[in-house]
Write a structure and sequence with these properties.
Order of helices and strands of chain B: HHHHHHHHH
Radius of gyration of chain B: 19 Å
Distance between the termini of chain B: 55 Å
CATH superfamily of the largest domain in chain B: RNA polymerase sigma factor, region 2, helix turn helix motif
Largest interface: A-B, 32 and 37 residues
Shape of chain B: globular
Number of domains of chain B: 2
Number of strands of chain B: 0
Oligomer: heterodimer
Distance between the termini of chain A: 143 Å
Largest sheet of chain B: none
Largest sheet of chain A: none
Number of strands of chain A: 0
Structural class of chain B: mainly alpha
């Protein structure tokens, strides 16, 4: 016989926690079922893994390791200096950059006291006609011409 | 060196810890480190990871013992922290694996080396069989819901009675019995699937 699913009590049978009656029922099933017998072997192997994993030897150096780890680890806190340092450095760079930019602007600036004055000066520079009327320009162009002669 | 004479029972130990006595902490670690590591191994199946987690457990105890009111036994509190730290470790390991799969960044973590693999076996065939069985157990336990897994591990790895498990998990004994029963049923199903895949 080959079950499509293992006997429902096979796990607990492998553990040895079934009552006498229940165990007898499983054993009767096992006599005629190859797949359950093979699976039972696997289950016993898995229990063997648990038994081996449970074996832990006392470690005389464990306390020293715990102590070392405690000394190395700082308590977690949002407000420790270590966490703030990157933010503070970035802020310093930003402030320094803005300050430097302002000073460079002053160094190479036109000296204009205000934006309006700057605009006025630019207009004066670009507006040739208000600087020198056309009549003055013509007189200066032909200085030797004497209409009265 | 055995300092435990200065602390006749856990109540004395708690008093010493709360008063900051370093000897008390040493006694606590020496008395309980095997149990804590064994509990953690039940979850992570790696001696190295279990030891790491156990160290965290004792550091947590040291930092928060002043808040311990004594509503439960010291050992119950220890087991509770061990279980929580182990489950947190598994959750973060799972997130790291998903991240690695999704991004391809970082090497895939080696499945924790089972204590069983380290102890060795008689022959290469036996070793391979044991590795298979260890992997089957690890995968089957991984598939259990957290509470079933906790109840099963405390029962099988720490040989804890249902009453003690109920105290650690803060549930009734009936619930513990039900969790363990369902854990065993689910484990049988998972192990059978694993067994059938290997048989093909």
């Amino acid at each position: 016989m080959k079950c499509t699913r293992p006997h429902k009590d096979l796990f607990r049978y492998a553990e040895g926690v079934l009552s006498t009656g229940e165990a007898a029922s499983v054993e009767k099933h096992l006599e005629g079922c190859v797949s359950c017998r093979e699976f039972l072997t696997e289950l016993k192997g898995v229990f063997g893994v648990i038994e081996r994993e449970k074996v832990i030897e006392e470690n005389p150096f464990f306390f020293t390791r715990v102590e070392t780890r405690m000394l190395r680890s700082a308590p977690a806190s949002l407000f420790t200096i270590r966490r703030l340092i990157p933010t503070m450095v970035a802020a310093l760079f930003f402030i320094g950059g803005v300050f430097t930019g302002i000073n460079i602007g002053k160094l190479y600036g036109t000296g204009a006291d205000s934006t309006e004055a700057l605009v006025y000066e630019s207009k004066q520079f670009l507006d040739d006609f208000s600087q020198e009327p056309i009549e003055s320009y013509m007189i200066n162009l032909y200085p030797d011409t004497d209409d009265t002669k | 060196m055995n300092f435990s004479g200065a602390y006749s029972d856990d109540k004395e130990l708690v008093r010493g810890l709360q008063e900051g006595e370093s000897q008390a902490f040493r006694v606590l670690v020496e008395k309980y480190h095997v149990k804590v590591i064994r509990t953690c191994i039940g979850f992570v199946h790696s001696a190295a990871d279990a030891e790491d987690i156990a160290q965290d457990v004792f550091i947590e105890i040291f930092r928060s013992v002043k808040n311990f009111r004594g509503d439960s036994e010291l050992s119950t509190w220890l087991y509770r922290i061990s279980v929580n730290k182990s489950l947190n470790f598994l959750r973060s390991a799972s997130r790291r694996r998903i991240f690695t799969l999704l991004t391809g960044v970082g090497s895939a973590e080696k499945q924790g080396v089972s204590q069983d693999e380290i102890t060795g076996a008689d022959s290469t065939d036996d070793k391979l069989i044991r590795e298979d069985q260890a992997r089957a157990l690890s995968q089957a336990l991984d598939s259990l819901p957290g509470n079933q897994r906790t109840a099963f591990v405390l029962n099988k790895y720490e040989d804890m009675a249902y009453k003690e498990i109920a105290a650690v998990m803060d549930i009734s004994m009936g619930s513990v019995e039900s969790l363990i029963f369902r854990a065993k049923q689910n484990l049988q199903k998972r192990l059978y699937v694993f067994y059938q895949k290997n048989m093909k």
